[in-house]
Specification:
Serine Threonine Protein Phosphatase 5, Tetratricopeptide repeat, elongated
């Protein structure tokens, strides 16, 4: 069911909330002896979600007291239970132009006719209602009736009148649904939403509605714009759940459009450090990655981050020998806790390549190969360690596997291969 049709139900709480008596009996006086007892029964039924018996009790209360507040509760509950014929019968039976509740009861009657698909009668009563009570709720009800009659231009007209009267986000979403989906006035629908959001924000689901239109049209810039608007509004209001839900959509579209724009958003809002780190790594921003890794590590003590810090420190260093000792220390600390083949190979290769401890390096590389026996980088490390140990035939056998797998395009691979071939 299109969203604007739900407004038929959304107007009911306004009626339901009214508790002013309209009989001649003062509100603070009992209309009949059992009135208090009946009220308690009705409230207990409501509390137990037994709306059928609750509504019956409110009807008894009305019939014995003449207080329209009870009738409206009966009608509202009947509407909730989709007892539309009951709503029609009793609202028509007790429709009294002299009652202060006349507008409410007539609206119930009109809605029941609409729900029962008696569209001609509903239109007649809706026009009477609007002529007598000119307000946004009645404009909107008439708009819904015209929609059900598939008179979409008239539906548009009355939804516009309702919106001008109340500047409600909910009313606007109903209007733009008619414009966009039934009258093919897509640009007008989008323009309405953009203007409302700029002036009044996202209340009433207008940002979600505009997002759905932009997504259908694959307008990435528009999607990002409305998601940013919603994100900052939810953030300002402290609606953390909605903010986080919106953020997930927003960052996905920002990544799709431009990684640097996604990075700028994350840097500005300080919302997701791990996501920011992953984007830094995608862009190969090593210095920014290292700075953020240190920040997260200090907050969390996550030992895995210490190993990542060691890798970046070594890769960034211009004079790698100056940082070698500190990098090795970080890896050793991490591997006391972790059993990670990437870090085992990285440390093992450093110990081999810089002749720090070739035997220990080979042991670490072999541990890594137990977990990933076909990893050519690890096989290269093994071959290089065997070369350093002067185990030339074994080194050649292992290095040949690497060359057969990936060739000689990489400078370091060519260097290792040439050295191992020369080994005697």
């Amino acid at each position: 069911m299109p969203s604007y049709k739900t407004l038929i139900i959304l107007i009911l709480p306004l009626l339901f909330a009214s508790c002013v008596g309209t009989s001649n009996i003062p509100i603070n006086k009992k209309a009949f002896e059992q009135e208090d007892s009946y009220i308690l029964y009705a409230l207990e039924y409501e509390q137990n979600r037994d709306l059928n018996n609750a509504r019956k009790m409110y009807l008894k209360l009305f019939e014995n007291s003449g207080r329209y507040s009870y009738l409206k509760r009966f009608l509202a509950m009947s509407m909730q239970l989709k007892k539309y014929e009951d709503v029609r019968i009793y609202s028509k039976k007790y429709l009294d132009e002299d009652s202060k509740s006349y507008q409410d009861i007539l609206r119930f009657y009109t809605i029941s006719l609409l729900k029962l698909d008696k569209l001609d009668d509903a239109l007649e009563q809706g026009q009477i209602l609007l002529k007598r009570f000119n307000n946004s709720e009645n404009y909107e009800l008439l708009a819904n009736i015209y929609f059900e009659r598939e008179e979409y231009s008239k539906s548009e007209k009355y939804f516009e009148s309702a919106y001008v009267s109340n500047i409600s986000g909910q009313t606007l979403t109903n209007l733009v649904d008619v414009l966009y989906s039934y009258l093919n006035k897509k640009e007008k629908a989008i323009s309405y939403l953009e203007t409302h959001i700029r002036l009044y924000g996202c209340e009433g689901g207008v940002c979600s509605k505009l997002f759905s239109f932009y997504r259908e049209q694959r307008n990435i810039d528009g999607i990002i714009s409305v998601l940013k608007k919603a994100f900052y509004e939810y953030k300002k209001d402290g609606n953390i759940h909605a903010m986080n839900r919106t953020y997930k959509f927003l960052i996905a579209y920002l990544e799709q459009k431009n990684l640097d724009e996604a990075i700028a958003f994350l840097e500005k809002n300080d919302i997701d450090e791990y996501k920011l780190l992953s984007l830094y790594q995608k862009k190969d921003y090593k210095k920014k990655s290292l700075k953020l890794l240190y920040k997260i590590y200090k907050k969390t003590g996550n030992i895995d981050l210490l190993a990542q810090i060691a890798i970046l420190e070594f890769e960034i260093a211009k004079d790698k020998r100056k940082v070698l000792k500190e990098v090795i220390t970080k890896f050793e600390s991490a591997l006391m806790v972790l059993d990670n083949h990437i870090y085992q190979n990285f440390l093992g290769y450093l110990l081999i390549d810089y002749n720090v401890d070739v035997d220990k390096g080979l042991a670490l590389v072999k541990k890594a190969l137990e977990k990933a026996p076909n990893n050519v980088a690890y096989i290269d490390s093994l071959a290089w360690g065997l070369y350093k140990k002067k185990e030339c035939k074994k080194a050649y056998t292992q290095m040949k596997k690497v060359i057969d797998a990936i060739g000689l395009d990489e400078k370091e691979i060519r260097f290792h291969w040439n050295k191992i071939k020369e080994c005697k």
